[in-house]
Amino acid sequence: MTSPRTTLSLVDTDPAELAVDAIVIGVHSQTTEPGSGAPAHALLLATGGESIAAAFDGKLTETLALLGATGGPGEVIKLATLGTVTAPLVVAVGLGPEPSGAAPAPESLRRAAGAAVRALAGAARVALALPLPDDADAPAALRAVAEGALLGGYRFAGYKTKPQPARREPVAEVLVAVPDAADATAQAEVARAQAVAGAVRTSRDWVNTAPNELRPPAFADAVSAAAREAGLEVEVLDEAALKAGGYGGILAVGQGSEAPPRLVKLTWTPEGGGNGKRVALVGKGITFDTGGISIKPAQGMWEMKSDMAGAAAVGAAMLAIAALKPSVTVTGYLPMAENMPSGASYRPGDVISMFNGKKVEVLNTDAEGRMVLADAMARACADGADYLFETSTLTGGQVIALGKRIAGVMGTPELCERVRVAGDATGEPAWPMPLPDDVRKGMESDVADISQVNAGMDRAGHMLQGGVFLREFVTDDVAWAHIDIAGPGYHSGEATGYWTKGGTGVPVRTLVHLVEDVATNG
Protein backbone atom coordinates (compact mmCIF):
# COMPACT_ATOMS: atom_id res chain seq x y z
CA MET A 1 0.00 0.00 0.00
CA THR A 2 1.49 3.31 -1.12
CA SER A 3 0.48 6.61 0.47
CA PRO A 4 0.03 9.76 -1.65
CA ARG A 5 3.29 11.62 -2.24
CA THR A 6 4.06 15.30 -1.82
CA THR A 7 6.31 16.79 -4.51
CA LEU A 8 8.89 19.49 -3.82
CA SER A 9 10.78 22.03 -5.93
CA LEU A 10 12.74 25.28 -5.54
CA VAL A 11 11.63 28.78 -6.48
CA ASP A 12 13.39 32.15 -6.35
CA THR A 13 10.38 34.36 -7.06
CA ASP A 14 9.40 36.99 -4.48
CA PRO A 15 7.28 35.02 -1.97
CA ALA A 16 4.68 37.81 -1.94
CA GLU A 17 4.04 37.19 -5.64
CA LEU A 18 3.80 33.40 -5.64
CA ALA A 19 0.55 31.94 -6.95
CA VAL A 20 0.05 29.39 -4.18
CA ASP A 21 -2.70 28.49 -1.73
CA ALA A 22 -0.59 29.48 1.27
CA ILE A 23 2.77 31.06 2.02
CA VAL A 24 4.58 29.88 5.16
CA ILE A 25 6.87 32.20 7.11
CA GLY A 26 8.78 31.73 10.34
CA VAL A 27 8.43 33.72 13.54
CA HIS A 28 10.56 33.73 16.67
CA SER A 29 9.43 34.24 20.23
CA GLN A 30 11.01 37.29 21.82
CA THR A 31 11.04 38.15 25.50
CA THR A 32 11.22 41.90 26.09
CA GLU A 33 12.93 43.73 28.95
CA PRO A 34 10.71 44.53 31.96
CA GLY A 35 9.69 48.19 32.06
CA SER A 36 10.27 48.70 28.31
CA GLY A 37 6.58 49.31 27.70
CA ALA A 38 6.52 46.50 25.11
CA PRO A 39 4.43 43.35 25.55
CA ALA A 40 6.11 40.73 27.74
CA HIS A 41 6.13 38.30 24.82
CA ALA A 42 6.60 39.77 21.36
CA LEU A 43 7.01 38.19 17.94
CA LEU A 44 10.08 38.58 15.78
CA LEU A 45 9.81 37.89 12.06
CA ALA A 46 12.34 35.34 10.83
CA THR A 47 14.34 36.04 7.69
CA GLY A 48 12.64 34.96 4.49
CA GLY A 49 9.33 36.67 5.18
CA GLU A 50 10.41 40.30 4.70
CA SER A 51 8.36 40.93 1.55
CA ILE A 52 5.28 39.43 3.21
CA ALA A 53 5.70 41.72 6.20
CA ALA A 54 6.16 44.73 3.92
CA ALA A 55 2.84 43.99 2.23
CA PHE A 56 1.17 44.25 5.64
CA ASP A 57 2.68 47.69 6.26
CA GLY A 58 4.70 46.45 9.20
CA LYS A 59 1.65 45.19 11.11
CA LEU A 60 2.07 41.47 10.36
CA THR A 61 3.64 40.37 13.66
CA GLU A 62 1.23 42.56 15.62
CA THR A 63 -1.72 40.93 13.85
CA LEU A 64 -0.34 37.44 14.38
CA ALA A 65 0.13 38.19 18.07
CA LEU A 66 -3.53 39.25 18.27
CA LEU A 67 -4.41 35.83 16.84
CA GLY A 68 -2.49 34.18 19.67
CA ALA A 69 0.88 33.57 18.06
CA THR A 70 3.77 33.27 20.49
CA GLY A 71 6.50 31.95 18.19
CA GLY A 72 6.78 28.74 20.21
CA PRO A 73 8.40 25.81 18.38
CA GLY A 74 5.99 24.14 15.97
CA GLU A 75 3.11 26.54 16.64
CA VAL A 76 1.06 27.21 13.49
CA ILE A 77 -1.12 30.34 13.06
CA LYS A 78 -3.11 31.06 9.88
CA LEU A 79 -4.00 34.54 8.65
CA ALA A 80 -6.17 35.46 5.66
CA THR A 81 -4.27 37.95 3.49
CA LEU A 82 -7.35 39.66 1.98
CA GLY A 83 -5.36 40.45 -1.16
CA THR A 84 -2.29 41.99 0.46
CA VAL A 85 -0.17 39.30 -1.25
CA THR A 86 -0.95 36.84 -4.03
CA ALA A 87 -1.48 33.86 -1.71
CA PRO A 88 -4.86 33.95 0.08
CA LEU A 89 -3.31 32.63 3.30
CA VAL A 90 -0.19 33.45 5.33
CA VAL A 91 0.85 30.77 7.76
CA ALA A 92 3.26 31.64 10.57
CA VAL A 93 5.15 28.73 12.08
CA GLY A 94 6.99 29.14 15.38
CA LEU A 95 10.75 28.66 15.49
CA GLY A 96 11.30 29.37 19.18
CA PRO A 97 13.69 32.08 20.45
CA GLU A 98 15.92 33.71 17.87
CA PRO A 99 19.34 32.01 17.92
CA SER A 100 22.14 34.44 18.66
CA GLY A 101 24.32 35.07 15.63
CA ALA A 102 23.14 32.00 13.71
CA ALA A 103 20.29 30.58 11.70
CA PRO A 104 17.81 28.27 13.45
CA ALA A 105 19.09 24.76 14.07
CA PRO A 106 18.32 22.34 11.22
CA GLU A 107 16.04 20.25 13.41
CA SER A 108 14.03 23.37 14.34
CA LEU A 109 13.55 24.09 10.63
CA ARG A 110 12.74 20.44 9.91
CA ARG A 111 10.02 20.33 12.56
CA ALA A 112 8.64 23.74 11.58
CA ALA A 113 8.35 22.79 7.91
CA GLY A 114 6.71 19.51 8.85
CA ALA A 115 4.22 21.15 11.20
CA ALA A 116 3.26 23.79 8.63
CA VAL A 117 2.77 21.37 5.74
CA ARG A 118 0.83 18.98 7.95
CA ALA A 119 -1.44 21.83 9.13
CA LEU A 120 -2.12 22.80 5.51
CA ALA A 121 -3.54 19.45 4.45
CA GLY A 122 -6.22 20.13 1.85
CA ALA A 123 -4.16 22.79 0.05
CA ALA A 124 -2.86 21.88 -3.38
CA ARG A 125 0.17 24.17 -3.54
CA VAL A 126 2.13 25.67 -0.65
CA ALA A 127 5.30 27.79 -0.55
CA LEU A 128 7.80 27.90 2.31
CA ALA A 129 9.66 31.18 2.92
CA LEU A 130 11.64 30.00 5.94
CA PRO A 131 15.03 31.32 7.07
CA LEU A 132 17.87 29.82 5.02
CA PRO A 133 21.41 31.08 5.68
CA ASP A 134 23.71 32.09 2.83
CA ASP A 135 26.87 30.60 4.36
CA ALA A 136 28.34 27.13 4.87
CA ASP A 137 25.25 26.12 6.86
CA ALA A 138 22.94 26.67 3.87
CA PRO A 139 22.91 23.06 2.55
CA ALA A 140 22.05 21.58 5.96
CA ALA A 141 19.26 24.12 6.48
CA LEU A 142 17.76 23.50 3.05
CA ARG A 143 18.00 19.74 3.54
CA ALA A 144 16.14 20.08 6.84
CA VAL A 145 13.35 22.22 5.36
CA ALA A 146 12.93 19.88 2.39
CA GLU A 147 12.88 16.74 4.54
CA GLY A 148 10.47 18.28 7.03
CA ALA A 149 8.07 19.37 4.30
CA LEU A 150 8.07 15.99 2.56
CA LEU A 151 7.64 14.04 5.81
CA GLY A 152 5.05 16.45 7.20
CA GLY A 153 3.04 15.78 4.05
CA TYR A 154 2.88 12.05 4.82
CA ARG A 155 -0.39 10.34 5.61
CA PHE A 156 -0.94 6.60 5.55
CA ALA A 157 -3.48 5.64 2.90
CA GLY A 158 -5.41 3.53 5.39
CA TYR A 159 -8.31 1.13 4.92
CA LYS A 160 -11.47 3.27 5.20
CA THR A 161 -14.16 2.20 2.71
CA LYS A 162 -16.44 5.23 2.99
CA PRO A 163 -15.65 8.84 2.01
CA GLN A 164 -14.42 10.92 4.95
CA PRO A 165 -15.63 14.52 4.38
CA ALA A 166 -13.41 15.91 7.14
CA ARG A 167 -10.32 14.00 5.93
CA ARG A 168 -8.18 16.35 3.87
CA GLU A 169 -5.62 15.18 1.36
CA PRO A 170 -1.96 15.98 2.10
CA VAL A 171 -0.42 19.00 0.36
CA ALA A 172 0.30 17.95 -3.22
CA GLU A 173 3.11 20.37 -4.07
CA VAL A 174 5.57 22.33 -1.94
CA LEU A 175 7.75 25.17 -3.22
CA VAL A 176 10.77 26.21 -1.17
CA ALA A 177 11.89 29.82 -1.60
CA VAL A 178 15.68 30.11 -2.05
CA PRO A 179 17.99 32.88 -3.34
CA ASP A 180 18.82 30.96 -6.55
CA ALA A 181 16.60 28.06 -7.63
CA ALA A 182 19.13 27.00 -10.29
CA ASP A 183 22.03 26.66 -7.83
CA ALA A 184 23.56 23.21 -8.28
CA THR A 185 24.17 22.65 -4.56
CA ALA A 186 20.59 23.54 -3.72
CA GLN A 187 19.25 21.28 -6.46
CA ALA A 188 21.42 18.43 -5.17
CA GLU A 189 20.04 18.87 -1.65
CA VAL A 190 16.48 18.71 -2.96
CA ALA A 191 17.23 15.55 -4.92
CA ARG A 192 18.80 13.98 -1.85
CA ALA A 193 15.88 15.01 0.37
CA GLN A 194 13.41 13.49 -2.07
CA ALA A 195 15.31 10.19 -2.11
CA VAL A 196 15.73 10.01 1.65
CA ALA A 197 12.26 11.26 2.58
CA GLY A 198 10.79 8.90 0.00
CA ALA A 199 12.57 6.04 1.75
CA VAL A 200 11.29 7.18 5.15
CA ARG A 201 7.75 7.29 3.78
CA THR A 202 8.14 3.75 2.42
CA SER A 203 9.34 2.60 5.83
CA ARG A 204 6.34 4.25 7.45
CA ASP A 205 3.99 2.56 4.99
CA TRP A 206 5.41 -0.87 5.81
CA VAL A 207 5.16 -0.27 9.57
CA ASN A 208 1.61 1.06 9.31
CA THR A 209 0.33 -1.80 7.15
CA ALA A 210 -2.07 -4.13 8.97
CA PRO A 211 -0.18 -7.19 10.27
CA ASN A 212 -2.50 -9.65 8.53
CA GLU A 213 -1.38 -8.10 5.24
CA LEU A 214 2.35 -8.05 6.01
CA ARG A 215 3.29 -11.45 7.37
CA PRO A 216 6.88 -12.57 6.71
CA PRO A 217 6.45 -13.93 3.16
CA ALA A 218 4.46 -10.85 2.09
CA PHE A 219 6.93 -8.48 3.77
CA ALA A 220 9.82 -10.24 2.04
CA ASP A 221 8.02 -9.96 -1.30
CA ALA A 222 7.33 -6.24 -0.79
CA VAL A 223 10.91 -5.43 0.16
CA SER A 224 12.33 -7.57 -2.63
CA ALA A 225 10.14 -5.98 -5.28
CA ALA A 226 11.07 -2.45 -4.20
CA ALA A 227 14.76 -3.38 -3.98
CA ARG A 228 14.88 -4.97 -7.43
CA GLU A 229 13.17 -1.91 -8.90
CA ALA A 230 15.84 0.25 -7.24
CA GLY A 231 18.62 -1.84 -8.80
CA LEU A 232 19.77 -3.69 -5.68
CA GLU A 233 20.93 -7.31 -5.64
CA VAL A 234 18.36 -9.42 -3.78
CA GLU A 235 18.59 -12.80 -2.06
CA VAL A 236 15.66 -14.32 -0.12
CA LEU A 237 16.07 -17.35 2.13
CA ASP A 238 12.81 -19.23 2.74
CA GLU A 239 12.23 -21.68 5.57
CA ALA A 240 13.94 -24.54 3.72
CA ALA A 241 17.04 -22.43 3.01
CA LEU A 242 17.07 -21.19 6.61
CA LYS A 243 16.99 -24.77 7.90
CA ALA A 244 19.74 -25.83 5.50
CA GLY A 245 21.84 -22.83 6.54
CA GLY A 246 21.53 -23.40 10.28
CA TYR A 247 19.60 -20.24 11.16
CA GLY A 248 18.24 -21.69 14.42
CA GLY A 249 17.20 -18.37 15.97
CA ILE A 250 15.08 -17.21 13.03
CA LEU A 251 13.48 -20.65 12.66
CA ALA A 252 12.72 -20.98 16.38
CA VAL A 253 10.88 -17.68 16.57
CA GLY A 254 8.98 -18.31 13.33
CA GLN A 255 7.97 -21.91 13.94
CA GLY A 256 4.84 -21.03 15.91
CA SER A 257 3.26 -19.25 12.95
CA GLU A 258 1.67 -20.72 9.84
CA ALA A 259 3.40 -17.89 7.93
CA PRO A 260 7.02 -19.09 7.70
CA PRO A 261 10.06 -16.89 8.37
CA ARG A 262 12.36 -15.29 5.83
CA LEU A 263 15.80 -13.69 5.65
CA VAL A 264 16.13 -11.00 2.98
CA LYS A 265 19.58 -9.86 1.90
CA LEU A 266 19.95 -6.66 -0.15
CA THR A 267 23.28 -5.53 -1.62
CA TRP A 268 24.51 -2.23 -3.06
CA THR A 269 27.87 -2.49 -4.85
CA PRO A 270 29.34 0.74 -6.23
CA GLU A 271 31.21 0.83 -9.51
CA GLY A 272 34.81 -0.22 -9.04
CA GLY A 273 34.10 -1.42 -5.50
CA GLY A 274 34.06 2.07 -4.00
CA ASN A 275 36.50 2.86 -1.21
CA GLY A 276 36.95 -0.78 -0.25
CA LYS A 277 34.96 -0.57 2.99
CA ARG A 278 31.99 -2.86 3.64
CA VAL A 279 28.96 -1.79 5.69
CA ALA A 280 26.33 -4.21 6.98
CA LEU A 281 22.88 -3.01 8.06
CA VAL A 282 20.69 -5.40 10.07
CA GLY A 283 17.05 -4.76 11.06
CA LYS A 284 14.61 -6.72 13.23
CA GLY A 285 11.58 -7.84 11.20
CA ILE A 286 9.06 -9.33 13.63
CA THR A 287 5.90 -8.67 11.61
CA PHE A 288 3.77 -9.23 14.70
CA ASP A 289 4.82 -10.01 18.24
CA THR A 290 2.33 -11.71 20.55
CA GLY A 291 5.19 -12.68 22.85
CA GLY A 292 4.69 -16.32 21.86
CA ILE A 293 4.24 -18.74 24.77
CA SER A 294 5.34 -15.88 27.09
CA ILE A 295 2.33 -13.97 25.79
CA LYS A 296 1.97 -10.22 26.16
CA PRO A 297 -0.94 -8.43 27.85
CA ALA A 298 -3.79 -7.57 25.49
CA GLN A 299 -3.58 -3.82 26.16
CA GLY A 300 -1.60 -2.20 23.39
CA MET A 301 -0.68 -5.46 21.69
CA TRP A 302 -2.04 -4.09 18.41
CA GLU A 303 0.98 -1.81 18.24
CA MET A 304 3.18 -4.89 17.92
CA LYS A 305 2.62 -4.66 14.17
CA SER A 306 5.47 -2.14 14.48
CA ASP A 307 7.94 -4.74 15.75
CA MET A 308 9.36 -4.90 12.23
CA ALA A 309 10.27 -1.19 12.23
CA GLY A 310 13.99 -2.02 12.27
CA ALA A 311 13.74 -4.17 9.15
CA ALA A 312 11.52 -1.56 7.50
CA ALA A 313 14.16 1.09 8.23
CA VAL A 314 17.00 -1.03 6.85
CA GLY A 315 15.05 -2.00 3.73
CA ALA A 316 14.05 1.62 3.11
CA ALA A 317 17.57 2.90 3.81
CA MET A 318 18.87 0.49 1.16
CA LEU A 319 16.44 2.04 -1.35
CA ALA A 320 17.82 5.51 -0.56
CA ILE A 321 21.38 4.18 -0.82
CA ALA A 322 20.63 2.78 -4.28
CA ALA A 323 19.42 6.24 -5.33
CA LEU A 324 22.31 8.17 -3.75
CA LYS A 325 25.02 5.74 -4.94
CA PRO A 326 27.66 6.17 -2.19
CA SER A 327 31.14 4.81 -2.94
CA VAL A 328 30.97 2.02 -0.37
CA THR A 329 29.57 -1.52 -0.47
CA VAL A 330 26.44 -1.85 1.69
CA THR A 331 24.50 -5.01 2.49
CA GLY A 332 21.21 -5.09 4.33
CA TYR A 333 19.98 -8.14 6.27
CA LEU A 334 16.30 -8.33 7.20
CA PRO A 335 15.36 -11.38 9.35
CA MET A 336 11.57 -11.73 9.32
CA ALA A 337 9.34 -13.86 11.53
CA GLU A 338 5.94 -13.77 13.21
CA ASN A 339 6.05 -14.61 16.93
CA MET A 340 2.86 -16.57 17.58
CA PRO A 341 1.70 -19.03 20.28
CA SER A 342 0.73 -22.45 18.96
CA GLY A 343 1.47 -26.11 19.43
CA ALA A 344 4.57 -25.61 17.29
CA SER A 345 5.96 -22.56 19.14
CA TYR A 346 9.37 -22.51 20.72
CA ARG A 347 9.24 -22.72 24.50
CA PRO A 348 10.97 -21.38 27.62
CA GLY A 349 13.62 -23.97 28.37
CA ASP A 350 14.44 -24.74 24.74
CA VAL A 351 18.10 -24.68 23.71
CA ILE A 352 18.63 -23.27 20.23
CA SER A 353 21.66 -23.79 18.02
CA MET A 354 22.40 -20.48 16.30
CA PHE A 355 23.96 -19.69 12.92
CA ASN A 356 27.41 -19.20 14.43
CA GLY A 357 27.18 -22.47 16.38
CA LYS A 358 26.51 -21.00 19.82
CA LYS A 359 23.85 -22.61 21.99
CA VAL A 360 21.23 -20.31 23.53
CA GLU A 361 18.90 -21.22 26.39
CA VAL A 362 15.48 -19.64 25.90
CA LEU A 363 13.91 -18.29 29.08
CA ASN A 364 11.37 -15.84 27.61
CA THR A 365 9.86 -16.30 24.16
CA ASP A 366 9.00 -12.59 24.17
CA ALA A 367 12.72 -11.83 23.88
CA GLU A 368 12.48 -13.04 20.29
CA GLY A 369 14.01 -10.08 18.50
CA ARG A 370 17.52 -10.82 19.70
CA MET A 371 17.16 -14.40 18.44
CA VAL A 372 16.48 -13.43 14.83
CA LEU A 373 18.98 -10.59 14.94
CA ALA A 374 21.75 -12.82 16.28
CA ASP A 375 21.51 -15.10 13.25
CA ALA A 376 21.43 -12.19 10.82
CA MET A 377 24.38 -10.44 12.51
CA ALA A 378 26.42 -13.64 12.51
CA ARG A 379 25.66 -14.06 8.81
CA ALA A 380 26.74 -10.46 8.14
CA CYS A 381 30.05 -11.11 9.89
CA ALA A 382 30.52 -14.36 7.97
CA ASP A 383 29.96 -12.52 4.69
CA GLY A 384 32.53 -9.90 5.70
CA ALA A 385 31.97 -6.40 7.05
CA ASP A 386 34.06 -3.57 8.43
CA TYR A 387 31.10 -1.87 10.15
CA LEU A 388 27.81 -3.39 11.30
CA PHE A 389 24.85 -1.21 12.25
CA GLU A 390 21.82 -3.04 13.64
CA THR A 391 18.51 -1.46 14.60
CA SER A 392 15.48 -2.88 16.33
CA THR A 393 12.47 -2.19 18.51
CA LEU A 394 14.16 -4.43 21.04
CA THR A 395 13.36 -3.54 24.65
CA GLY A 396 10.88 -1.67 26.77
CA GLY A 397 13.95 -0.79 28.82
CA GLN A 398 15.00 1.68 26.12
CA VAL A 399 11.79 3.66 26.61
CA ILE A 400 12.15 3.60 30.39
CA ALA A 401 15.77 4.76 30.24
CA LEU A 402 15.72 7.28 27.39
CA GLY A 403 12.10 8.05 26.54
CA LYS A 404 10.25 7.86 23.25
CA ARG A 405 12.49 10.09 21.16
CA ILE A 406 16.08 9.05 21.98
CA ALA A 407 17.43 5.70 20.82
CA GLY A 408 19.86 3.70 22.93
CA VAL A 409 23.17 2.70 21.29
CA MET A 410 25.47 -0.11 22.40
CA GLY A 411 28.52 -1.71 20.85
CA THR A 412 32.01 -0.59 19.84
CA PRO A 413 32.49 2.75 21.66
CA GLU A 414 33.94 4.60 18.64
CA LEU A 415 31.09 3.46 16.41
CA CYS A 416 28.48 4.31 19.05
CA GLU A 417 29.86 7.85 19.13
CA ARG A 418 29.63 7.95 15.34
CA VAL A 419 25.96 6.98 15.61
CA ARG A 420 25.37 9.69 18.21
CA VAL A 421 26.90 12.35 15.93
CA ALA A 422 24.84 11.12 12.98
CA GLY A 423 21.69 11.20 15.09
CA ASP A 424 22.36 14.79 16.10
CA ALA A 425 22.86 15.75 12.45
CA THR A 426 19.65 14.11 11.26
CA GLY A 427 17.34 14.94 14.17
CA GLU A 428 17.16 11.28 15.24
CA PRO A 429 18.96 11.50 18.61
CA ALA A 430 20.73 8.48 20.04
CA TRP A 431 22.66 8.02 23.26
CA PRO A 432 25.53 5.56 23.89
CA MET A 433 24.98 3.08 26.71
CA PRO A 434 27.44 0.65 28.40
CA LEU A 435 27.68 -3.13 28.19
CA PRO A 436 28.72 -4.01 31.77
CA ASP A 437 30.41 -7.25 32.70
CA ASP A 438 27.92 -7.87 35.52
CA VAL A 439 25.05 -7.85 33.01
CA ARG A 440 26.83 -10.57 30.99
CA LYS A 441 27.48 -12.55 34.15
CA GLY A 442 23.76 -12.51 34.91
CA MET A 443 23.11 -14.21 31.56
CA GLU A 444 25.22 -17.28 32.28
CA SER A 445 23.30 -20.48 31.56
CA ASP A 446 23.66 -23.80 33.38
CA VAL A 447 23.08 -25.76 30.16
CA ALA A 448 24.04 -23.54 27.21
CA ASP A 449 26.59 -20.92 26.18
CA ILE A 450 24.33 -18.02 27.17
CA SER A 451 20.81 -17.38 28.39
CA GLN A 452 18.63 -15.28 26.17
CA VAL A 453 17.83 -12.95 29.10
CA ASN A 454 19.04 -12.68 32.71
CA ALA A 455 19.10 -16.20 34.15
CA GLY A 456 17.12 -15.06 37.19
CA MET A 457 14.66 -13.07 35.03
CA ASP A 458 15.96 -9.89 36.69
CA ARG A 459 14.95 -6.98 34.46
CA ALA A 460 17.63 -4.62 35.80
CA GLY A 461 19.57 -3.26 32.86
CA HIS A 462 16.98 -4.78 30.51
CA MET A 463 18.08 -2.68 27.51
CA LEU A 464 21.72 -3.56 28.21
CA GLN A 465 20.90 -7.28 28.33
CA GLY A 466 19.83 -7.06 24.70
CA GLY A 467 23.12 -5.43 23.70
CA VAL A 468 25.18 -7.90 25.73
CA PHE A 469 23.43 -10.82 24.06
CA LEU A 470 23.91 -9.47 20.53
CA ARG A 471 27.61 -8.86 21.18
CA GLU A 472 28.04 -12.65 21.33
CA PHE A 473 27.26 -12.86 17.62
CA VAL A 474 29.65 -10.21 16.31
CA THR A 475 33.20 -11.26 15.47
CA ASP A 476 36.08 -9.36 17.05
CA ASP A 477 37.22 -7.84 13.76
CA VAL A 478 33.90 -6.06 13.09
CA ALA A 479 33.04 -2.67 14.62
CA TRP A 480 29.34 -2.71 15.50
CA ALA A 481 26.52 -0.66 16.96
CA HIS A 482 23.11 -1.80 18.16
CA ILE A 483 20.45 0.96 17.92
CA ASP A 484 17.40 0.27 20.09
CA ILE A 485 14.42 2.20 18.70
CA ALA A 486 11.64 0.72 20.83
CA GLY A 487 10.40 4.26 21.54
CA PRO A 488 11.40 6.29 18.47
CA GLY A 489 10.33 3.66 15.92
CA TYR A 490 6.60 4.14 16.46
CA HIS A 491 4.64 7.21 17.55
CA SER A 492 1.33 6.42 19.24
CA GLY A 493 0.55 10.00 20.28
CA GLU A 494 -0.77 12.99 18.38
CA ALA A 495 1.08 14.20 15.31
CA THR A 496 3.94 16.60 16.03
CA GLY A 497 6.42 18.32 13.74
CA TYR A 498 7.12 15.98 10.83
CA TRP A 499 6.01 12.91 12.82
CA THR A 500 2.52 11.63 12.12
CA LYS A 501 0.80 8.98 14.20
CA GLY A 502 2.19 5.49 13.56
CA GLY A 503 5.51 4.50 12.05
CA THR A 504 8.16 7.24 12.16
CA GLY A 505 10.80 5.87 9.80
CA VAL A 506 13.49 6.21 12.48
CA PRO A 507 16.41 5.58 11.93
CA VAL A 508 16.40 5.60 8.10
CA ARG A 509 18.03 9.04 7.90
CA THR A 510 20.66 8.11 10.49
CA LEU A 511 21.61 4.94 8.59
CA VAL A 512 21.91 6.82 5.30
CA HIS A 513 24.02 9.50 6.98
CA LEU A 514 26.31 6.84 8.47
CA VAL A 515 26.77 5.12 5.12
CA GLU A 516 27.61 8.43 3.44
CA ASP A 517 30.04 9.17 6.27
CA VAL A 518 31.82 5.84 5.75
CA ALA A 519 31.89 6.43 1.99
CA THR A 520 33.55 9.82 2.53
CA ASN A 521 35.75 9.20 5.56
CA GLY A 522 36.18 5.44 5.72
TrEMBL record:
Q: Which major enzyme category is it?
A: hydrolase
Q: Which domain of life is it from?
A: Bacteria
* The UniProt record lists the keyword Hydrolase: yes
Q: Where is the active site?
A: K296, R370
InterPro entries linked to this entry = Leucine_aapep/pepB, Macro_dom-like, Peptidase_M17_C, Peptidase_M17_leu_NH2_pept, Peptidase_M17_N
Predominant localisation class: cytoplasm
Q: Which residues bind Mn(2+) 2?
A: K284, D289, D307, E368
List ligand-binding residues for Mn(2+) 1: D289, D366, E368
What SUPFAM superfamilies is this protein classified in? Answer: Macro domain-like, Zn-dependent exopeptidases
Q: Which UniProt keywords apply?
A: Aminopeptidase, Cytoplasm, Hydrolase, Manganese, Metal-binding, Protease
Q: Which reaction does it catalyse?
A: Release of an N-terminal amino acid, preferentially leucine, but not glutamic or aspartic acids; Release of an N-terminal amino acid, Xaa-|-Yaa-, in which Xaa is preferably Leu, but may be other amino acids including Pro although not Arg or Lys, and Yaa may be Pro. Amino acid amides and methyl esters are also readily hydrolyzed, but rates on arylamides are exceedingly low
| One of the record's GO molecular function terms | aminopeptidase activity
Q: Which residues form the Cytosol aminopeptidase domain?
A: 364-371
The compartments listed are:
Cytoplasm
Cofactor comment: Binds 2 manganese ions per subunit.
Asked whether the UniProt record includes Cytoplasm among its keywords, one would answer yes
Pfam families (alphabetical): Peptidase_M17, Peptidase_M17_N
Which protein, by its recorded name, is this? Probable cytosol aminopeptidase
